[in-house]
Amino acid sequence: MTKKVGFIGTGNMGAAIIRGMAGDDNIKLLGTDLNEASLQSLAAETGLIKCDNARDLARESDFIVLAVKPQHAPAVLEAIAMELTESKCVISIAAGLSVAALKEFCENRCPVVRVMPNTPALVNAGVFAVCLDDNHLSNEQRTFTSEMFKPLGDVYTLGENQFDSFTAVIGSGPAYVFYFIDAMIESAVELGLSRDMARSMVEKLFEGSTKLSKESKLHVAHLREMVTSPAGTTVKALVHLDRTATRGNIIDAIRKSYERSIELGKK
Questions:
Q1: Which SS3 state, helix, strand or coil, does residue 64 take?
Q2: Residue 254 is part of a domain; what is its CATH number?
Q3: E strand or H helix at 50, and its extent?
């Protein structure tokens, strides 16, 4: 049976999910967005059916994907609440909104699913956390929601009590990686390599190292030791990182992100 999946918000992440689902004959895509030109372009690309407003979209959809900024989510859900029934499901990718808050905004009219993506989903290499804690979800809704994000990366079903941890490590994680990539590029430029060459080399370094970590049976600590010869160049750099507490600072930084995620969830 064809499922109708409607997207309220078709920005970067919403559009990425739509592109990942496009072409599935068992799914009918609908969308609405304030950016009419962007919506029109996405509709032409994916076959998405445009809706004039969120309420019309909710009325026509089996699954409603809330892909708006968190501060706009309450008003959107309150506006569509009258169109929601137990046979529908709201899927929220709005950061920080708990299952309880989502259900309250929906006036408890339908089950909800909370999802946390990360930005590599834009290139089909994301990591998604999916919360299926709402006991009003049907088995069909649980299965469909778990499967819909798989074209965009890896999907993990987590309890909501693990979402702040996921946010701190994985949701925010791309920024940490890009921060380190940027620092390495700058160091290469400072040492005399051209910026374009430095970027190409460093990006390949991260790609290759990640591939080796995934495909090797060795722990990452052992892979690090393979590069670390006694009295060599690598150990000199690593000892400096340890002496300046870089590992501890990374752990502390992620803890700060975790604590902030908890704070935002309480607002």
A1: strand
A2: 1.10.3730.10
A3: strand 49-50
| Backbone phi and psi for residue 60, each to the nearest 5 degrees, phi listed first | -90, -15
Cα separation, 137 vs 73, in Å, equals 21
84-to-34, 55, 72, 75, 107 alpha-carbon distances in Å: 22, 9, 18, 15, 9
pLDDT digits (tens, 9 = 90+) for 63-76: 999 999 988 999 99
Question: Domain containing 77 — which CATH number?
Answer: 3.40.50.720
Question: What percent of the chain lies above the pLDDT cut of 70?
Answer: 100
Indicate whether 155 and 244 sit together in one domain. Answer: no
Q: From 116, 147, 171, give the residue that closes a domain.
A: 171
Same-domain check for residues 46 and 131 = yes
Cβ atoms of residues 59 and 78 within 8 Å: no
Nearest to 20 by CA among 153, 137, 116, 163: 153
141, 171, 201 — which closes off a domain?
171
Do 139 and 217 have their domain in common?
no
Q: How many angstroms separate the CA atoms of 147 and 54, rounded?
A: 24
- Strand pairing of 126-131 and 112-116? antiparallel
Q: Which helix (H) or strand (E) holds 157?
A: strand 153-157
Contacts of 123 (CB under 8 A, 6+ apart): none
pTM: 0.90
Tens of pLDDT along 108-137? Answer: 999 999 999 999 999 999 999 999 999 999
Same structural domain for residues 98 and 182?
no
Range of the domain at 239: 173-266
